[in-house]
Amino acid sequence: MFTIGSNWATAALSPLKSTLKAELKINNAQYGVIASANSLVNTVLPIIGGIAIDWFGPEWGSMLSSVCVFLGTLVSGIGASRSSYRALVAGNVILGLGSNTIESCQSKLYTHWFYGNHLGFVYGVDIAFGRVINSNHLKATSIPIAEGTGWWGWSIWASTISTSIPCIMAAATLAINVAYIFFESRLPKASRLVSGREAAKRKTDANQGATREAWFAAIFAIPAAFWIITISQLLQSGDVSAYSSIQADLITQTRGSSRLVAGYTSSISQIIPIFVTPMVGALFDRYGRRMYYVSATAALWILVYALIGFSDVHPMVPYGILASVALSFNAIPFIAAIPLVAPSQAYLGTAFGVWKAFNSAAAVIMDVSTGAIQDKTPTGTHTYDNVLYFLIALKAVDVIYGMLYHVLDLRYFGSVLRMSEVEKLRDVQRQDAEGDTTRQFPLKRPVKLWTVLGLVVMFSLVITAWVLYLVYARGS
């Protein structure tokens, strides 16, 4: 339940794109600034948050994050009341301070309790729970609320009120965290999630210098296999994020649908994943072969983009059917793969933080870039043509990546991405019996070249995201 507030608040924007442009007198790129505002701070914060989670533990981080989520939705509501573009941007930035850190806390807790025990299914349930909020509560209701009340701002305020009046959801999250901490404290020590700080205390009474070194050591302990996958993905997650932020307006422009119909149609793609994504996670647990689905999913996204932008087929086909299947398989192969290529709890929170930092930077870059591309494209039915060409080109590269990951896994990762849970547990037992296997598969351990390259690419993405964001935000 930790991500209810952030999921609810961010889901409201997409159906309101055309309304926000008209009411706030902004262009497509500036709408991209609003849509990506909560991702902006998450180009840096997840890394710091991930390191802190590994060092202090995830329980306290989730409590602090819930406060940021509430404050962000409150500021956004005030911005809607005053028709203030800058306040809406500020609200989404504050919201971003908590949204991704909460997800990293969840992921680390899930891995502690469910590693080797239906972990893929648990990740699927978590993603599906977010889809429930995304589709049923807001994307299908933002336009009805706006049209029924005569003011678009009620859609933003509904997000704020429904998630946190007054701070109800933040208080509920706090209560859940307190209950969890109490529960964990009652468990045998061997069952508890040990933070990096506790582990360091148990090992030695080190001086302050050694403690600082341990604090930052996590990021340099991440295996090369993780960096290879993360670097190669670059803008791929931002591809789908950008598409999601424009899909309602895309239906309106290409099919001439009303905003109400477009809002409902765009929400349909979120419904099927509610039921399918947990099944996909269970499929990975039972049969493995996670990277097989990366190429197939990328090819499916290409078909979705082509049908919605360059054909007259009813939007229910690409949105209601094909996009639903693509969303079901989109994120979970990578989320389920991170604990396999970065398996130690000593740095798992940092690994999730790095992954989210890459994704957030990509979301900012893609949201603003696609808006800028659209602004330079003739208006009318074909206003999204160049945007869709761009999205298709990126997914075409991802088709190749999926096949490449499979080869790398077989030769250099120890086939961990192909294994089912049963095979994975057997492999762990074999490693315990035979000793270290990283000499046979060197990319399963840290490699300085890949760590440095990963950090350089990550900070380059972050700088690019901030420059793009500030340029177009200042343009308002």
UniProtKB/TrEMBL annotation:
Membrane topology: Multi-pass membrane protein
Compartments (UniProt record): Membrane
Any GO MF annotation of the entry: transmembrane transporter activity
Residue ranges annotated for the Major facilitator superfamily (MFS) profile domain, each copy included: 1-410
UniProt keyword annotation of Transmembrane helix present: yes
Transmembrane segments: 31-53, 60-80, 156-183, 214-235, 261-284, 291-310, 316-340, 386-408, 449-472
Keywords assigned by UniProt, alphabetized: Membrane, Transmembrane, Transmembrane helix
Leader sequence segment: none
Annotated GO CC locations: membrane
Reaction(s) the record says it catalyses: L-lysyl-L-alpha-amino acid(out) = L-lysyl-L-alpha-amino acid(in); L-arginyl-L-alpha-amino acid(out) = L-arginyl-L-alpha-amino acid(in); L-lysyl-L-lysine(out) = L-lysyl-L-lysine(in); L-histidyl-glycine(out) = L-histidyl-glycine(in)
Alphabetical list of Gene3D superfamilies matching this protein: MFS general substrate transporter like domains
Pfam families: MFS_1 (PF07690)
Role this protein plays: Lysosomal dipeptide uniporter that selectively exports lysine, arginine or histidine-containing dipeptides with a net positive charge from the lysosome lumen into the cytosol. Could play a role in a specific type of protein O-glycosylation indirectly regulating macrophages migration and tissue invasion. Also essential for liver homeostasis.
PANTHER family: MAJOR FACILITATOR SUPERFAMILY DOMAIN-CONTAINING PROTEIN 1, TRANSPORTER, PUTATIVE (AFU_ORTHOLOGUE AFUA_4G00260)-RELATED
Subunit structure and binding partners: Homodimer. Interacts with lysosomal protein GLMP (via lumenal domain); the interaction starts while both proteins are still in the endoplasmic reticulum and is required for stabilization of MFSD1 in lysosomes but has no direct effect on its targeting to lysosomes or transporter activity.
The protein's name: Lysosomal dipeptide transporter MFSD1
